[in-house]
Amino acid sequence: MTLRHGFTTGTAAAAAAKAATLRLLTGRAQDSVEVPLPVGQRMTITILESRVDGEGIMAAVVKDGGDDPDVTHRAVIRARVRRGVGDGVVLRGGAGVGVVTRPGLPVPVGMPAINPVPRQQITLAVTEAMAAACGMNEKVSLEVEISVDRGEELAQKTFNPRLGIIGGISILGTRGTVKPFSNAAYQATIRQCLDVMQACGARTPCLTTGGRSERFLRQARPRTPETACVQVADFFAYSMKEVGRRGFDSVLWGVFFGKLVKQAQGHRYTHARSAELDLTILAGWCADCGFDRHVCQKVAGGNTAMQALELLAPLPQSATLFALLTDKAAAAARLFCGREVGVDYMLFDFSGQILHQTSEAA
C-alpha cells in the first residue's frame, strides 16, 4: 500500500498567502494555487475560501497531514494580505500563531513562531504572485498576516507551551511536505526542547518516555521545572546523541520497567515494532542477581515486561536487579552520547512508586 504524503503548515500558509495576493492584485479568486517547496519542487494546493476582508483579502487552506496526521491535521490556516508602504513583503503573525518568549529557538524572542524556512517559502510564494499580477518592474508592498483557526487550543496538544511559545501553534516545515510515519518531526521537537533547556540554563536534562513518566518524575522532584523535561518517546540513542552534542554534563532518565530493560539491552530505538523485548536475556540477568531458578524460568517464558515485574518486584533480589539494569542502561546511554556524561535513572511502577533510583537522582 502506498502511503499518501501531506503538506506542512508552512506550505498551507504559503498557499493561502499566494491566493490572497493574487485576488488582491488581480481581482480574481483562486480555486487552487501552485506553491514552491523548500526542497525545490512544487505542489498544487486547494483553496478553502477567498474573500474581501476590510482593506485586504483573506484566503484559507485546510492543512493536510496525509497518512501521518498530527495535531494540525485539518487545521484551517489563513493569510490576510493588504497593501503596505514601500515595496517588498512584510510577514506578521495573527491569531492562533504562537509568539516566542524563550531563547534557544530558531525564531527570536518576541517574534511570531513562523520558522525561517516557512518564512522564506511564504515570502517566495507571495513574490511569485506579485510578479504574475504586476510584472517584475512594478514596485508593490504587501503586508501578510498568517493566522490559524483554533490555534491556541491546538497548541495545548503540542510542546509549544513548554518551549515558551504562547498563544498558538508554530508554522513549520523544512521540506514542505509531510512524509508518512516519519520520525523527523519528533526528533526536531527533541532538539528544540534541548536547545531551550540550554538557553534557559538547565544543567541536567530530564528525559522521559512519555507524559506519565514525566509526571511521576516531577512529582518525585517537585523543584524540577517543566522546561528541564522532554518526552523523548522511544528515541534512546538519538536523545543521548543530542545531549552529547550540546555538551550537557549529566542527564536524568525517568522510565518504566519495560523501557529500562530495552535500554539495558542496548536498543537504539525502543518501540515494540523495532525493538523486541528479549525476556531470555532478562532471565539471565535475574540468575546473575540470585533469583531462584524457577523464577528465572517464569521470566524467560513470560509474555510482557509487566508480567515479569509483577513476579520480580516483591522479591528481595529485585533491588540488585534494578541496580544492574540501570547500570547497563547508563553504559548504553554514554555510548550513544559519544562522550563521558553522568547518567542517572528513576524507575517507576505504573502507580508512580519509585522502584529504584541511582545515587545522584536520589
UniProtKB/TrEMBL annotation:
Keywords: Cobalamin biosynthesis, Methyltransferase, S-adenosyl-L-methionine, Transferase
Cross-referenced InterPro entries: CbiD, CbiD_sf
Entry coiled-coil feature ranges: none
EC number(s) stated in the UniProt entry for this protein: 2.1.1.195
GO molecular function, one term: cobalt-precorrin-5B C1-methyltransferase activity
Classification via Pfam families: CbiD
Entry keyword annotation includes Transferase: yes
Record pathway: Cofactor biosynthesis; adenosylcobalamin biosynthesis; cob(II)yrinate a,c-diamide from sirohydrochlorin (anaerobic route): step 6/10
UniProt-listed Gene3D superfamilies: CbiD-like
GO-annotated biological processes: anaerobic cobalamin biosynthetic process; methylation
Catalysed transformations (reactions): Co-precorrin-5B + S-adenosyl-L-methionine = Co-precorrin-6A + S-adenosyl-L-homocysteine
Enzyme class: transferase
Entry similarity comment: Belongs to the CbiD family.
Name the record gives this protein: Cobalt-precorrin-5B C(1)-methyltransferase
Species, as recorded: Desulfomicrobium baculatum (strain DSM 4028 / VKM B-1378 / X)
